[in-house]
Amino acid sequence: MYNDLQKRYVKEIKTNQEQSEAIKNLTIKIHELEHNLREQRQRIEQLECKRVSWKTSAVSGKRRRTPEGELTSCRDISEKKESCCSKYLELLLKEIKKLKKENEKLSTERRALKNELAGLDKDFFEEIEDLKLAVQESVKLNNQYEKCLKQISVMYGLPFSAH
Question: Which residue has the higher pLDDT, 106 or 163?
Answer without folding.
Answer: 106
